[in-house]
Design a protein that fits this description.
The chain has 381 residues and is α+β, with helices and mostly antiparallel strands. It folds into two domains: 178 residues, no CATH class; 174 residues, no CATH class. It is built from eleven helices and nine strands. The strands form three sheets. A five-stranded mixed sheet has the order 1-2-3-5-6, with helices on one face. The N terminus is likely disordered.
Length: 381
């Protein structure tokens, strides 16, 4: 079950607790009242009407909740933990989620309803980084990114530098040809860096204040649909009640349900993309088990590739019998090298476009980004 600290403690005066036991009850109520409310509901669903030391009128409270929420069938408590799916496990160290993150989203089961019971404000999910990251990727995979990829393509078309090469004062001798080659390499790498930074901001904009992403993120955080694979650990109903039995139940079957939108408006998830140098082991993903993609691979490939293009063209020029001052058109040569280097650069950004259509995890690793997910975790249900 969830940590009892996730719940607001009921007003002890409202519960009419016996005065002679007030010290003991005060301590226990701080940690157990929310759980006892779940027990009251299960007892009522089973027609038992058992008295409860926290709720002197427990049978009446339970019956009231069962009746107002239309609960039908026998009630029971789920297991303390459930296995996560392999897709979810991949975002945790060692490829396996452990401990409290395997606590089910379901608090009680009544008939066919897998119910999460909310008594006042409560956490949306556990606060672990891996938990938030797994929730982010689950939601991101369901966000339409066609428009984003199309916009990325338009930006790639604008990578050609507008620098007026005729102002460089390069005449065409061998030394100045080498300077021209260095200029081309630096200029294209600068453009690669600008495109890399722009992509980082575009990625954040894709998720910031995005209603579709917020809905998907909140739905997964609420239900554990992907996490537990729609098993008994996945909640599909949210029973919100006070300690007097004033209750309402919201059934949630998909991310488009109205109640998810209501909660999502409070959650307000956001994802920031930081550029960080990761070790090879940090870059391992299911489709990239050896960690061969990421920051180092992206920039080393870009750098080495552009350097190769420039050096190859310089060797061709140096071996040309026409390399003499006044005969060799260095400006035309520079533009040709620039075009080839930029085509090389575009090829790699086009690879990113393909990755974006397939797997968010791989593209984030390929670009060397670290995702920092933030969201409001204390929700009024």
């Amino acid at each position: 079950m969830k940590s009892f600290q996730q719940y607001n403690t009921p007003n002890l005066n409202e519960l009419n607790l016996p005065k002679y036991n007030s010290k003991i009850v005060l301590h226990e109520a701080d940690t157990s009242a929310a759980y006892e409310m779940e027990k009251v509901i299960v007892d009522a669903a089973n027609g038992e009407g058992v008295d409860n030391k926290y709720f002197p009128n427990a049978p009446e409270v339970g019956k009231k909740i069962v009746r107002s929420c239309g609960l039908k069938g026998k009630g029971y408590f789920p297991k303390n933990s459930y296995s996560a799916t392999s897709k979810w496990n991949q975002y945790f160290e060692g490829g396996k989620a452990k401990g409290s993150t395997l606590t089910p989203k379901t608090d009680i089961v009544v008939g066919k309803d897998r119910i999460s019971v909310k008594t006042g404000d409560a956490q949306l999910m556990s606060g672990g980084r891996s938990e938030a990251l797994a929730t982010f990727y689950t939601a991101a995979e369901k966000v339409d990114r066609d428009a984003f990829v199309e916009n990325l393509g338009k930006k790639l078309d604008g990578l050609m530098p507008t620098t007026d090469l005729t102002k460089l004062g390069i005449k065409g001798n061998k030394t100045e040809l080498e300077d021209a080659g260095k200029f081309v390499e630096i200029e294209v790498l600068r453009r690669a860096d600008e495109a890399h930074k722009a992509l980082k901001e575009d990625l954040r904009a894709l998720f910031k204040s995005n209603p579709a992403f917020a809905q998907e993120f909140t739905f997964e955080a609420m239900t554990g649909m992907e996490k537990f694979g729609n098993s008994e650990g996945t909640a599909d109903a949210f029973l919100v009640t006070d300690f007097k039995g004033n209750a309402k139940m919201h059934k949630v079957k998909s991310s488009s349900d109205g109640y998810v939108g209501k909660i999502a408006s409070q959650v307000k998830p956001d994802a920031k993309f930081k550029t960080s140098q990761k070790t090879k082991s940090d870059l391992k993903t299911p489709s990239n088990p050896k960690g061969k993609s990421g920051y180092y691979s992206f920039w080393s490939t870009i750098g080495l590739g552009i350097n190769m293009v420039v050096n190859e063209e310089m060797q061709n020029a140096n071996s040309d019998e026409y390399l003499t001052e006044g005969i060799f058109d260095v400006f035309k040569w520079m533009k040709g090298v620039m075009k080839k280097a930029l085509n090389f650069l575009k090829k790699y950004f086009n690879k990113i476009k393909k990755l974006l259509k397939q797997n968010w995890n791989d593209v984030v690793a390929f670009l060397g980004f670290e995702i920092v997910v933030t969201h409001n975790n204390k929700i009024s249900w």
